[in-house]
Design a protein that fits this description.
- It is a single chain.
- The protein has 2 domains: 222 residues, P-loop containing nucleotide triphosphate hydrolases (Rossmann fold), CATH 3.40.50.300; 156 residues, 3-Layer(aba) Sandwich (Rossmann fold).
- It is built from 19 helices and 13 strands.
């Protein structure tokens, strides 16, 4: 039976509605899903383009090289977990302390210092196993040492180092020295070709006795697993045996007494010309035992550029020339002690008691003539400025009351006692006190502030007998004696009578 026009119209409208519904369904989905549906339809109909799959879209500012080929980055954002205060506190307690990076002027040293920390940890473990640490030192860690971090900074500054505690090196100090040397060897091997290395040891540690040599070597043993070999040379062992051991081992660290090392060097049993770090322990004991000339000969045998570290176990003024002969012009000071004797180490103090003002002025002029320093700091009373300024100009010095400027002439800075600023005195090796100072505290402040980067400091004090009679001699005598300085006989008698 033929269908009427109404039936055909209904059928056509139904087909149209289905098409509209399909269009509406595709519009409700996202653009990405719609593109996937369209691609599927093209594949079924056989109308897929030849380039499809190679480039789906044009480059965009977010993807300029079209590396993602139009694909949307659907990586999930990481959600941060909120940690409670208790959890953070517990994690902080469980975490082991670590060495932080240290800034050194003029050196590109990366951090954290993992290898240095590893060396210190190995020595730490050996200290705990062999009983070096007592029960109350169980929580102690070498890499938290204030002295060690300060030493590390001084070492990488390249200057010679003077330890002014007045004692021999401690186990902690030895551990930091050998660990820093091991770290320096590793850096050198990484930065320089191996062919440039000499057969000389990197570290030479001079000690006054076999017992000290054994103590130092016991610390170095912990680093054997890192390829560091340490050899101890001293009396009590066969000379031939020690020479044979040196030739077979070629150690990185050499610990020795001066006289035995000189014997082996004379027999060409070891080459020390390429030593990079020289440590002289207990210099006062070495001088007392008569080994100073041997130490100087050993230092002269080192032809390479090297650093020297001196542990001065004596504050005696008689040892100051020895320290000066072994260290460079510019040094770094480091100490475990804050005492006046430690801070004023290697500064010669003289107290000149004169009969009159004229004799004091004459003595002042003599010291000016004999001084080799180009920078002199003079602290005096304001009413004496004109007198001393005229004398300084007569001696060829350029005088300044503020900052010292560059000049071909020797410079002198003239400062009023009432306006004394000791923070600017660290570069001055020679300080003169023509009118002395009003208190012993001011004197100590000057002594511990001057010549911080030198071992050539000299502090001269001048006063007349009249002033000396009214001045309390006791505190000054105590400072001079603690620092190992010469005390004037008149001053000592005055102190004794009191």
């Amino acid at each position: 039976m033929a269908k009427g026009d109404d039936a055909l119209a209904r059928k056509k409208n139904k087909s149209t509605r289905k098409k509209m519904n399909r269009k509406n369904d595709s519009a409700t989905v996202s653009t990405r899903i719609a593109s996937i549906i369209a691609a599927k339809k093209r594949r079924k109909s056989g109308k897929r383009s030849m380039c499809q799959g190679m480039c789906f879209s044009l480059p965009t500012p977010e993807d300029p090289f079209n590396e993602r080929q139009g694909k949307v980055d659907i990586t999930k954002k990481k959600t941060k977990k909120v940690k409670t205060r208790d959890a953070l506190h517990k994690k902080k307690e469980d975490k082991k302390p670590n060495v932080m990076s240290i800034d050194v002027i003029g050196k590109n040293i990366d951090g954290p210092l993992k290898f240095l920390t590893s060396c210190l940890n190995k020595i730490d473990s050996s200290f705990r196993s062999d009983g070096t640490y007592t029960d109350d030192q169980h929580d102690k860690y070498l890499f938290t040492s204030t002295w060690g971090i300060e030493f590390w900074k001084c070492f990488w500054s390249g200057k010679d180092i003077l330890e002014t505690s007045g004692t021999s090196s401690t186990m902690e100090q030895i551990a930091w020295i050998v660990s820093t040397a091991t770290d320096a060897i590793a850096r050198r091997e990484k930065e320089e070709p191996e062919e440039s290395f000499r057969n000389s040891p990197y570290l030479l540690f001079l000690v006054p006795s076999p017992s000290r040599a054994s103590k130092v070597r016991s610390v170095c043993k912990a680093l054997k697993g890192l390829g560091i070999h340490a050899v101890s040379l001293h009396q009590g062992a066969s000379l031939d045996h020690q020479i044979a051991g040196l030739k077979s081992c070629e150690p990185e660290f050499l610990v020795s007494t001066p006289e035995r090392l000189l014997e082996i060097v004379t027999l060409k049993g070891v080459d020390i010309s390429g030593v990079s770090l020289l440590v002289i322990d207990e210099l006062g004991s070495l001088c007392t035992a008569g080994y100073l000339d041997a130490v100087k000969s050993i230092k002269q045998s080192i032809s390479s550029k090297h650093q020297s570290i001196v542990f001065n176990d004596s504050f005696s003024a008689s040892n100051i020339p020895a320290v000066r002969s072994l260290l460079g012009e510019s040094i770094s000071r480091i100490s475990l002690s804050d005492s006046v004797a430690s801070q004023g180490s290697c500064i010669i103090q003289t107290v000149n008691v004169c009969s009159s003002e004229e004799q004091k002025l004459h003595k002042f002029a003599e010291i000016l003539d004999s001084s080799s320093s180009k920078l002199i700091y003079i602290v005096t009373k304001e009413e004496s400025f004109r007198k001393f300024k005229a004398l300084l100009k007569l001696k060829g010095h350029s005088v300044s009351a503020s900052e010292v400027k560059k000049s071909r002439k020797p410079m002198a800075r003239l400062i009023d006692i009432e306006q004394l600023d000791t923070t600017v005195m660290r570069d001055f090796e020679t300080v003169l006190l023509p009118d002395f100072v009003p208190s012993i505290d001011t004197y100590i402040q000057i002594l511990t502030s001057m010549a911080r980067d030198s071992v050539h400091g000299v502090l001269h004090s001048f006063l007349t007998q009249k002033v000396a009679a009214s001045y309390p001699a006791g505190p000054l005598v105590n400072v001079l004696e603690d620092c190992g300085q010469n005390v004037p006989e008149a001053w000592r008698n005055m102190y004794s009578s009191v």
